[in-house]
Backbone:
């Protein structure tokens, strides 16, 4: 703050008293024509200045200046409301994303479980068919097949070769 008082006899010898309502508790004295306040908090203030002549005579009325220091925007109600709303929005967005992801993972797990069950069923079916084939191949069947093959080896070698090839394939399956 800069200020000046009127004195026709000795303007350089004027003194001043000042008080910043809302900050100072008592009146301050100075011979300088300016006062600096640093780091004033947001709020309402009133600067009061009185000039003092060297003879001790004081000005009749204090010069007054009222002013307000607004809080920084991040301390304003609208910014804090907007910040809380944005945070709530992002939290809800994240929760929704996690729910969708969880739902997709459950669906994938169900699909994979069903796939595993299908593969197990197919394998059990194949094993059952193989056991059935083994149970149907009793020793009497084998003896008859080999006897027929021996007969055809002597009489019709091409037919015996086909028969032995089919028996070989049958045994490999089992």
Residues:
């Amino acid at each position: 703050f800069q200020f000046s008082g009127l004195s026709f006899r000795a303007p350089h010898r004027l003194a001043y008293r000042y008080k910043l309502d809302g900050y100072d508790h008592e009146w301050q004295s100075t011979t300088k024509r300016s006062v600096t306040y640093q780091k004033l908090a947001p709020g309402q203030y009133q600067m009061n200045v009185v000039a003092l002549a060297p003879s001790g005579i004081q000005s009749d009325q204090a010069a007054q200046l009222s002013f307000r220091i607004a809080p920084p925007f991040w301390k304003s109600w609208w910014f804090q409301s907007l910040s809380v709303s944005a945070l709530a929005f992002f939290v809800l967005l994240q929760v929704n994303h996690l729910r969708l992801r969880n739902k997709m993972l459950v669906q994938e797990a169900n699909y994979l479980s069903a796939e595993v069950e299908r593969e197990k069923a197919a394998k059990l079916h194949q094993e059952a068919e193989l056991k059935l084939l083994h149970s149907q191949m009793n020793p009497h069947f084998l003896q008859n097949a080999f006897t027929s093959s021996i007969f055809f080896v002597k009489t019709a070698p091409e037919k015996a070769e086909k028969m032995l090839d089919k028996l070989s394939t049958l045994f490999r399956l089992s």
